[in-house]
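quick one
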Amino acid sequence: MSDGQVADRIGTADATGPDVARTSLAGRDAAGPGLAGPGVKADEVVVLDFGSQYSQLIARRVRELNVYSELLPFDTPWSEIAARKPKGVILSGGPASVYEDGSPHPDPAIWASGVPLLGICYGLHLMAQGLGGEVISFERKEFGPAVVSVTDQDRLFAGLEPEQPVWMSHGDSIARLPDGFRSTAHTGSTPFAAVADPDRRLYGIQFHPEVVHTQNGRQILRNFVLDIAGARPMWTPANFIASNVESIRRRVDEHSRATGSDGQVLCALSGGVDSAVAATLVHRAVGDRLICVHVDHGMMRKNETELLQTAFEQLGVRFIVVNARDRFLAKLAGVIDPEQKRRIIGNEFIRVFEEEAAKLGEIAFLTQGTLYPDVIESATSDMEKSASKIKTHHNVGGLPDDIAFQLIEPLRYLFKDEVRAVGTELGLPDSMVYRQPFPGPGLAIRIIGEVTAERLDTLREADWIVIDEIKAAGMYREVWQSFAILTPLRSVGVMGDGRTYSNVVAIRAVTSEDAMTADWAKLPYELLGRISSRIVNEVPGVNRVVYDISSKPPATIEWE
Ligand code: XMP
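structure w/ xanthosine-5'-monophosphate:
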C-alpha cells in the first residue's frame, strides 16, 4: 500500500486518477510535443505513471525547470521510451504494492538502460525489487509530515541542509538494498528514506518531492533533472511558440497544396485564456487564413464580448461575433433544472457554430484550446468518468467528436500556467492572460431558477461590481474565481422609509490550485462590505447580499 490511498489527506491532489496509468495518450497533434525550436527537440524527462495522484504534478514540476516532461503509461515498451532519447526517467508513486500479483511494473529493460532514474515511493520500491533487492510490508507505516536525516550529501541532496522536512505516504519499505546501492537518508522509522547508486545514476526516495509539503522538493527534482540527468532547460515559451508556428504553418500549407484549397482555419473564441492563446498562436502561423467566431449566447459577463472583439481586432485577427442571445433565451425559457440548462446551451452552441461555419465556405481546420490535463483526463475510462459525473461540463468551443474538420490543438501538451506564459510571450494583455476561469454555460448556471433577460441584467451588474472591487483590492489574481450568483430568494428590506421585497445576491470567491478542490476565500470584511453596499445601492431589485463560505468538497465552485 502506498500513496494513493491517503491522497485526500494532502489536499493538493491533482486531477489525475489511478486509471491514467493504464491508458494511452495517443492522438498527438501534428505540431508534436517537446520541440524547442523549429526541428529542434527539447531535452526530455519522462515520468512513468504508476497511478499516483501526483504523477501529473511531477511532470509539472519538471516543466517548471524548463525541461519538457511527459507522462507515459507505466507499461510503455522501453523501445518506445528509448526512441524519445530521454535524459532521465522518473518512476511515480502508486497505490499498489510491488510484491502483489498484478501490480503495475515497467518494462524490465529500463533497469539496464543506462538512463538516469529517479524512483519516488512506489517507484523506489520497483527499482529496489527490479535490481535484486527486497520490499516488504512495513509495520511502521509513515503518512504525513516527517523529517529525513541526510547522511550522504550526494548529488541529489546537493545544497541542502542535513535535516529535511518531507511528505511521506507509504506502507511498504525496502528490506534489503540491491547491490551497488547505499542509503543516503533515513527517518526514525525507515533506514531507506533515500537510496542511491551514483555510479549508475540510479536514485530513489521514499518521500514525495512533488508536493509542496516537502520543503525542498523542487531543489531535489532540480538536482536530478538538471544536474544528474543533465537535461538542458530548453523548454521555454519562446521556443514553444517558434516551433509550433512553424509546424502549424507547414501543416496548413501542405494541406492547401495537396487539396488546392485556401486552407482556412476556424476557431471558436470563448473569451477564456485557452482559446485566446490558441487563436493568437495559430494567427501567427497562418495569418488571415484564421477566422475566429465568437458565439454570443447572451450569458457573458458585462462588456466581455466587446472587450474580446477589440483585443482581437487590434491583433489584426478576422473576427466574427454571432449575436445569438434571443435564440438561447428562447430555448431556456421556463427551464430551471441545472443539467437541462447545460445541455440546452451545449447543443445550441454547436448548432449556431455549425451554421456559421457553413457560411464561410470550405474550412479545413478547427483550432481548439485543449490542454494537457484535458488530454490526461479524457484518457481515463468511461466507467470511471460516468461514475463520478457531477456536472455535464460544456466548453464553449466544445464540439462533437465527429466534427468534419481536422483539429489543430497547439496547447495539447501544456499546463495552464504554461499557457499563460505563452500568452504573455505572444503579447496578449494581462487582462486576457490572467482572466479567471468562466464556465461555458456562463451566467445561466449562476442564475438559480429560470434565466430571463431581466435576471441576466441584474446578475451582470452585480457580477461586474464584484470583479471591479476585487481588482481594486489587488486580489483578482490571488483568488481562483470570484463572482456573483442570483439566488431565487426574495427577502424583506427597508430602503428610505419604504419596505422592499427584493432579490438576494450571493457572492462566491474561492482559492484553488486546479478547481478539483477549493476553499472559500477569506476576503477582508471591508472589501465584502464595499461589494455589498455597492450592489444594494447600484443594482435595482437587490436588497440583500450574502457570502458563500462553503469549500469544495462538499460544495462545488459553481452553484449549478
Ligand atoms: P465546479 O462547479 O464543478 O467547477 O466546482 C469547477 C470549475 O469548472 C468550471 N466549470 C465549467 N467550465 N464548462 C466549463 O468550461 C462548464 O460547463 C463548467 N462548469 C463549471 C467552474 O467555473 C470551475 O472553474
